[in-house]
Design brief:
The complex is a heterotrimer of chains A (488), B (129) and C (449). Chain B has 129 residues and is of the alpha+beta class. Chain B is built from four helices and nine strands. Chain B has a six-stranded antiparallel β-sheet with strand order 1-2-3-9-8-5. Chain B has a three-stranded antiparallel β-sheet with strand order 4-6-7. Chain B is globular and about 35 Å long. Chain C contains twelve helices and 15 strands. The chains are: A alpha/beta (488), B alpha+beta (129), C alpha/beta (449).
Chain lengths: 488, 129, 449
Amino acid sequence: MGEPQLCDISVSGRQGINFPQPDVPLASFPEGFIREDLPMPELSELDVIRHYTRLSQLNYSIDTGYYPLGSCTMKYNPKINEETARYPGFAFTHPLQPIETVQGNLALMYTLQEWLKEIGGFAGMTLQPAAGAHGELTGVLIIRSYHRSRADNKRDKILIPDSAHGTNPATSAMSGLRVVEIKSDSRGNVDLDALRQECDGTLAGLMLTNPNTLGLFDEHVEEVIRLVHAAGGLVYGDGANLNALLGIIRPGDVGFDVMHFNLHKTFSTPHGGGGPGSGPVGVAAHLVDFLPAPVVGIIEEGDQEMPPLYGFITPSKSIGRMKSFHGHFGMLVRAYTYISMHGGPGLRKIAEHAVLNANYLLALIKGTYHLPYDRLCMHEFVVEGQWPDAPEIHALDISKRLMDYKFHPPTNYFPLIVHEALMVEPTETESKETLDAFAEALIKIADEAHHDPTLLKEAPHVTPVGRLDEVKAAKELVLCCGVATLDK
Amino acid sequence: MKIPSTLKYTESNEWINLEGKTGTIGISDYAQDQLSDIVFAEVIVNEGDILKKGDSIATIESVKAAADVYTPVSGKVISVNEDLGRAPEVINTDPYEAAWIIKIELNTPGETNSLMDAAAYEKFVQEQQ
Amino acid sequence: MFIPHTSADRAAMLRAVGIEKLDDLFKDVPAKYRFPTLNLPPALSEMEVSRELQDISLANESVHDLVCFLGAGVYNHYIPAAVDAIIRRGEFLTAYTPYQPELSQGTLQAIFEYQSNVAALTGMEVCNASHYDGATAVAEAVNMAYANFRGKRTKIILSPAVNPQYRQTVRTYAEGSPVVLVGDDPQSDLKANPDGLIPLIDVDTALIVVQYPDFFGRIYDYTKLAEAAHAMGALVAVSVNPIALGLLKAPGYMNADIVTGEGQPLGIPLSYGGPYLGLFATRKEYVRKMAGRLTGETVDNRGQRAYVLTLTAREQHIRREKATSNICTNQGLMALASTIYMSLLGKNGLRQVAELCFHKAHYAAQAITNLPGYSIWSSTPFFNEFVIQTPTPVSEINDLLLDHDILGGYDLSQDYPDLSRHMLIAVTEMNTREEIDRLVEVLSEVSNG
């Protein structure tokens, strides 16, 4: 029937983990503060292990199958990362320890800052943001602060292409800026005329994902950046699609002023079912002073005998603190490990094979699925999940049927500018065999859509659960187990 | 797609039923169809509020989308549909009658001239699809 | 490296795509900038990288090498072996966000149970799937309160006893917003009862934020403050240390509207600053105003109970610039770690840990008060952290403690100019009586004058 909830298997009196008796005299509790009851489950350790192990078996994961999710870069998460992040010298250090006791950590962070600067072509870097969206907020606040520092206070407009990820406009709104959407042209590039019209004295910046969410490298990227700069604006790069550019081009070289990296995409740190991520932000020279505090720097130079003393620095015009402490260190160790294992040529190989895989897969299916922008793609592509002669079938149905073929669906309904979009990103860690099998499944499903559509409409059939009643979930809003009922 | 000829429409898919100086406002059949199953609706203005054309009057959510509803005219809110919060699905089943959102007393004549009639709105809807 | 392609694979694929060589894939990239040489060290094998990272890690001293009395927001607690055993499972670790519920029931049910456990712990009705950390959770509470009043109320009162890093984060987030932050200026009387903030509450106040236990370790009953806030129509947010809630009355029972917190103490390693876990819970009436993901219970088309992300219409991928927040990836695996921790300990284990922290901290405080030259700064009841006044600057004392392999408490002069020579000491279940005695002994080496 499904795995019971914790509150169903809880048995009064059970306890998984026990602690020793106090080895100190007992102090008296302050009156009026002691909790009367704590309605939490009571389970043995075996109960807990079985419950969560069985739950895990209901999940699809990279370790069990391929995820063709566009713009997510679901590449293999190396196990060595999990080892290095757990070395006690990393895992058991307190963020407020005196810097002399954590020079290893600080050296790692400093080096990672330098490596990411080198990879992206930037002059400054912060490792503090917790995720891509957090990096976006950091970057947009930097842009805003930069203009205000030059008394350029009329600049309150952020331009965002219509293909952009929802975090881009949400971030701009959070920063108190107004969003103007720029349409794409027929080849999927930013429409230059539309852009020109918006380049005026109110322009704070443009948020650009390149390659964009169609998987296309903007054919006029240099002109786009030139136009924004000429109008006094700055260009923010959404680095979600960096996997296509490693060792191929450095966004900083082309003129991006600020860009976030997604370590949980490009740099192999695991998705964890919804995080944690890490969203470092790189900046050009004129924005270095605005980085959030603290940044890792060299406090005392080293020499032949002594390594430098690393510590924390507050940039002179810092936008402030984006969260507690200085970043998701555990994810930084993983990214450091990953980059160490690749080096420059290795990173370029990643981009080459990510892009090769995407184009290969596209070549296999483009006769069967409509490709709205017929160009060489980068690391991902978007096709339409619909056929004029099978009007009942939507991208959603194709996605659910893919599950019966033991594949996770591609990204659905995004970007918004393609009808019934299916966004596919293979990543470089998938083999030719996997891509051949995936293409074969897609082609079979296209055939089913035309001759036996019920198979799609009623899919999935082989998964632990079938299609869910999302309306019921939203209307009845059962968000907690029985135990959590507030009972004053 | 139902588009009653007695009503006027906006490009943000609201309808308004004008009777003298009173207007009744809701969202069109096309709008509810786009949203699909509506799970939540909240009227965010109160009786007596003075509104300007374009002010937000309600939020509607479905499983896959959310939409704000705007008043097509300026005026004073006379009454608010209290039932919408309890039974938001009525917007899907009866968008032009039971799912009215607010009644407003217009205070700026001439604003209604820029609204679309049923024929113009039908054309507008066809262009969206 | 992790790329499986052989030359035969590559050749076949290039043929299928219709190009000669890999470089041809990048013809859209401006030639001027194409194919830069990246100045990075040569690639290491797994064996070499493992050694290198070990060496780097050994250039640190951890709380395994040093006895830890440092807290100030994150703490050295015991993490049961079962937590890591489960979160390392590839099915959890390498799973994507559960947007396709049919393939993600493991993650979804685990989040649902996490939501339930945190709601129970905090005494609240609903809880989201996580924020980044305790600091950003407070910032999101401020955004939520501001949005709740549709911009009509702009005043946010911050108690000066809220973690300074949290208040700094709120200020950064407030940059783009009309909110006005008051209550925590440097001249604030830190010894005053938080009820002293009540006169600041008016009809322009959207939210008042307090911490429990506060940054100095003190515990207060916020019921009266909440009453005063509600009388003015304002909301109350309480930022918590969840371990304390194993013993202490939860803020839900003090009528808090929002409870946030740092979940690191619940089975998440210190890891030099993160990843951690932002707790966020509220009342059912505010659920739509709350940012972050939510998992709800429903049924599937076979009649089975199942779980799905719900109320997604609030989120960035649908609402875009009208979303309550831009949050996307959050702290999923850390939320899982914490709910495993809470399940393993259960109601009695959580109480046990809290009591150990309480008794050991009070033992330490008592012993230190008896040392000439030292005193306890406040007589207000505390949980497991307390402030001592020291005879010499805290930095000097901490240097001496370090010589004895002890990590001393937090130097409060860094954040509160009036608190020079004040140290914030944390004691947890990990500190033995011997370790506490050793701390006291070394402290006694530094006496008055």
